[in-house]
Amino acid sequence: VGEALEPHHIAAKAPDLPGPFAVGRYARKLQEEMRRRARVLLVGEVTGVGRSKVQAYFELRDGEGAVPCAIWLDDLDKAGLPDGALRDGAEVVIAGGPDYYPGGGQASPSFSFRATHVRLAGEGDLLARLEALRKQLKAEGLFELQGQLRRPVLPKAIGVVTAEAGAARRDLLAGLRRRGWAGTVVWAFAPVQDRHAAPAITAAIQDLAAQPQVEAIVVTRGGGSLADLWAFCDETLCRTVAMLRVPVVSAVGHERDSTLIDDVAAAACSTPTHAAEAVVPLDCGAARLGIERSIASLSRAAAGAVRARTPHLVALARGPARALRRERLALNQKTREIRAASERGVVERLGFQRRLATVVLERARRRAEGAEMERRRAALHRAAVALRAHEPERTLERGYALVEDRQGEPVTDAAGAVAAERVRLRFADGGVGAKIEESE
Amino acid sequence: VTEKPESYEAAVERLEQIIDRLDSGQAGLRETLDLCREGRDLVTSASPGS
Question: How many whole angstroms from its chain centre is CA A97?
Answer without folding.
Answer: 68
